[in-house]
Amino acid sequence: MNIHATTVPVRSCGNRYPTRDPAPGPGAAETVAVPEPRRTRPLLGAVFVAAEKNMVREVRHFTSSLLAFWGVAACDRESALLIVGELGANAAQYGGAELAVRLSLEGVTLRIDVRDCAPLPCARPSGFTARPAGECGRGLTIVDHLADHVETMTSGEGHMVRVDLRLTPPAPHGGR
């Protein structure tokens, strides 16, 4: 295992962005040995549920628990939960019978895949009426704002939205 020294300003809440610059004065920083990150396989998790609005809450709970287990920072979990919630709600409302969410974490990139099994073309339910302007339609804008990359794919098996979210780098002491 390779070890390198990093200067870390001492703060009660930790420091997410260590520097290699010397400390400004005595007692203001300490040097700690931090193992270099290893290249490992990505962490994976998936959940498959009925594409119903009440199941989106379960998907969000699964996502929150898994990301906490993986050690993802709370602020990043909140962004991921907003993304999963918006995409899950869309899949439950417009998709077919099943909603699938796949999460993978590699380095500081969290990939979120949300898939439905809606037939092509996307059919609106019978009795569908347009909603007043401004009542909905902001979900994908929120996702686009939070994510670093958004890709939508459509096939005969349904729709999938893939989102990449860059996470906060871990603190040098291993905590988040």
UniProtKB/TrEMBL annotation:
InterPro entries attached to this UniProt entry: Anti-sigma-factor_SerPK, HATPase_C_sf, HATPase_dom
Ranges for region Disordered: 1-31
Alphabetical keyword list: ATP-binding, Kinase, Nucleotide-binding, Serine/threonine-protein kinase, Transferase
Domain Histidine kinase/HSP90-like ATPase: 50-163
Keyword set includes Nucleotide-binding: yes
UniProt GO molecular function: ATP binding
Record protein name field: ATP-binding protein
